[in-house]
């Protein structure tokens, strides 16, 4: 339920994007698409350019504008169309996973709810493309399963264009549920799905990384990775194969320290023909600073799934600081994201990683590193802090490539506790590391008075798409807004 103040907020937003809904006193919602709102952008702190970039608010995607939306994820399909998936509250205290596709200037639903159980709180959806010509959308998410004692399970589904529905995929773990969890009695959350192929000329398949409660320490979490293989005997025609060498206890965790809490895995395919899987994550706990780690998948027939994970940089025994990506491994770092790209057209891509880290002043700063293209066994910092104001905290840093130009977007405190979307791009060679500010003078928000929660980004060769929530979804009917930035 929402109070009158919240309803007034929603009405303002709806009128702004040109929708008429009963929540504002009308009768029925119309199908009129929202108008395109374009703002010419000129970052005040940067030198003027010949033609100013443009930012366009496409609109909000909530299925029900009286309910809070959160946890967005974006992808571009093989027709260069934008896909978005998110979690949205429903009446009765439950939450659904929804997806939509941008058709012209309006979003059209892509199937119904993807939930396995529609009466639970599902969350952490993520979307990618796989299959021939990357034509098949895949999503992964987490939801508690009544069949497994309400323990959160990781699920993945592919979109069936013939039925217009999401079809779960994987081995039947009981009750017709294709959970990816290593153990269904241990909570699995925050999956990250990414499509790729390790064999040149073969269609990409879905890979999923996720965090799961450890079997050796219930207070810690491990990172696991599995890839999809075609199997007509499995649900949805695919089975999941866990990837990576087994540790002494027999589990294929990527953790540097299996007694720490691992969080927020992300993955990409990079290097030669984008055929090498990479995963990054961060670990916290045990009275040590939280640290960013990454690992490359290396072909190994002796390892389950045919690959083993090698930390980059290498991790010597008993000194994880040597393989931590933190600018200062004695400072806290978190929420790393990764993209595959190159600043030189025609060159092989390498992983680039962006994350917030505590700076010398005690505030969270956004930093970027990339794989050293000469050694391919270490990472090099690209520039300094990206913060608009280094004295303000940041969170949710995301890096993407628009063509051969890396862009980083994040949320930054404006000094009052309200977080705003910020955006920069690399305006020099990586060695110089100059990041130019692209944030419009009046910001990205549809409603400038609201703080931003959650953030997602994806790009084509010439357009950067952003998704963010306006208003705290824990207490407000936050709208999931989508915008396009044209450099």
Kindly summarize this structure in a few lines.
With 487 residues, this protein is mainly β. Helices cover 3% and strands 45% of the residues. The protein starts with a helix and ends with a strand.
Distance between the termini: 40 Å
CATH topology: Neuraminidase
Q: Main beta sheet, described?
A: 5 strands, antiparallel
Q: Helical percent range?
A: under 10%
Helix tally?
A: 1
CATH class: Mainly Beta
- Under the CATH scheme, the architecture is 6 Propeller
Average pLDDT figure: 91
Strand order of the largest sheet: 1-2-29-28-27
Cα shape: globular
Number of E-type strands: 29
**Regions with little confidence, pLDDT below 50 for 5+ residues:** 1-44
Name the beta content range: over 45%
Helix vs. strand class? mainly beta
SSE string? HEEEEEEEEEEEEEEEEEEEEEEEEEEEEE
- How many domains in all? 1
Rg from Cα: 22 Å
């Amino acid at each position: 339920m929402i109070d009158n103040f919240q309803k007034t907020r929603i009405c303002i937003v709806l009128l702004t994007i040109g929708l008429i809904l009963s929540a504002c006193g009308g009768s029925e919602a119309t199908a009129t698409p929202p108008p395109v709102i374009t703002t010419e952008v000129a970052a005040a702190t940067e030198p003027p350019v010949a033609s100013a970039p443009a930012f366009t608010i496409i609109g909000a995607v909530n299925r029900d504008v009286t309910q809070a939306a959160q946890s967005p994820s974006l992808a571009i399909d093989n027709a260069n169309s934008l896909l978005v998936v998110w979690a949205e509250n429903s009446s009765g205290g439950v939450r659904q996973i929804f997806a939509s596709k941008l058709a012209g200037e309006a979003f059209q639903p892509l199937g119904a709810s993807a939930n396995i159980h529609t009466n639970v709180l599902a969350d952490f959806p993520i979307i990618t493309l796989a299959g021939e010509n990357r034509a098949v959308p895949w999503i992964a998410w987490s939801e508690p399963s009544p069949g497994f004692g309400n323990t959160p399970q990781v699920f993945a589904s592919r979109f069936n264009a013939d039925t217009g529905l999401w079809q779960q995929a994987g081995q039947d773990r009981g009750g017709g549920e294709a959970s990816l969890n290593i153990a269904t009695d241990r909570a699995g959350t925050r999956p990250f799905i990414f499509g790729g192929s390790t064999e040149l000329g073969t269609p990409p398949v879905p890979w999923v990384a996720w965090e799961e409660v450890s079997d050796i320490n219930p207070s810690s979490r491990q990172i696991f990775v599995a890839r999809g293989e075609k199997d007509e005997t499995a649900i949805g025609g695919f089975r999941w194969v866990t990837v990576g060498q087994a540790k002494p206890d027999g589990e294929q965790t990527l953790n540097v320290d299996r007694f720490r809490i691992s969080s927020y895995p992300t993955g990409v395919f990079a290097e030669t023909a984008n055929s090498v899987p990479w995963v990054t994550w961060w670990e916290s706990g045990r009275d040590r600073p939280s640290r960013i780690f990454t690992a490359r998948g290396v072909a190994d027939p002796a390892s389950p799934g045919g690959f083993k994970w090698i930390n980059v940089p290498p991790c010597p025994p008993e000194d994880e600081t040597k393989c931590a990506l933190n600018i200062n491994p004695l400072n806290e770092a978190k929420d790393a994201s990764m993209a595959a790209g190159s600043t030189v057209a025609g060159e092989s891509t390498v992983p680039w990683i962006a994350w917030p880290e505590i700076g010398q002043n005690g505030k969270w700063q956004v930093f970027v590193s990339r794989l050293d293209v000469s050694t391919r066994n270490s990472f090099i910092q690209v520039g300094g802090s990206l913060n608009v104001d280094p004295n303000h905290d940041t969170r949710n840093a995301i890096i993407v490539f628009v063509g051969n130009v890396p862009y980083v977007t994040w949320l930054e405190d404006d000094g009052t506790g309200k977080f705003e979307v910020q955006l920069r791009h690399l305006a020099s060679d990586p060695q110089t590391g100059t990041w130019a500010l692209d944030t419009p003078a009046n910001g990205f928000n549809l409603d400038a008075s609201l703080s931003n929660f959650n953030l997602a980004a994806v790009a084509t060769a010439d357009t950067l798409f952003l998704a963010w929530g306006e208003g705290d979804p824990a207490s407000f009917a936050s709208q999931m807004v989508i915008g396009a930035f044209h450099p």
